[in-house]
Amino acid sequence: MADVLTAEAVRDELGGLAGWSGDPAGITRTAELASFPDAIAVVDRVAVTAEELDHHPDIDIRWRTLTFRCVTHSAGGVTRRDLELARRIDEILGSVR
């Protein structure tokens, strides 16, 4: 099982992830896309990445606004896997803007 990161480690890592916030209980990012189809296209790409990593975010879809929440439920908090997924989500979002 992956180790849950300390509050300090999460804070340090979030410093390198634009738009993400949170603590050892979970990290989140909200992004607004140009349209609903654009938002769904991002969700589709994140789904493929999540399957590749075998690690899945919680995703809230509100018209063209997406909120991603990453936490390793089996570990009870944020692990390195969540940070890697957050980085990959950032790459996807960066490619559609």
Which class best fits the helix and strand makeup? alpha+beta
Order the strands across the largest sheet as they lie in space: 1-2-4-3
Mean pLDDT: 96
Number of strands: 4
- Give the oligomer, counting copies of the same chain as homo and different chains as hetero: single chain
CATH topology: Gyrase A, domain 2
CATH class: Alpha Beta
Main beta sheet strand tally, sense and closure:
4 strands, antiparallel
Number of helices: 3
What would your notes on this structure say?
The protein is an alpha+beta fold and 97 residues long. It has a single domain, classed as Gyrase A, domain 2 (2-Layer Sandwich). The chain has 3 helices and 4 strands. The chain has a 4-stranded antiparallel beta sheet. A hairpin with a 2-residue loop joins β1 and β2. α2 packs antiparallel against α3. The chain starts with 6 loop residues before the first helix and ends with a helix. The mean pLDDT is 96.
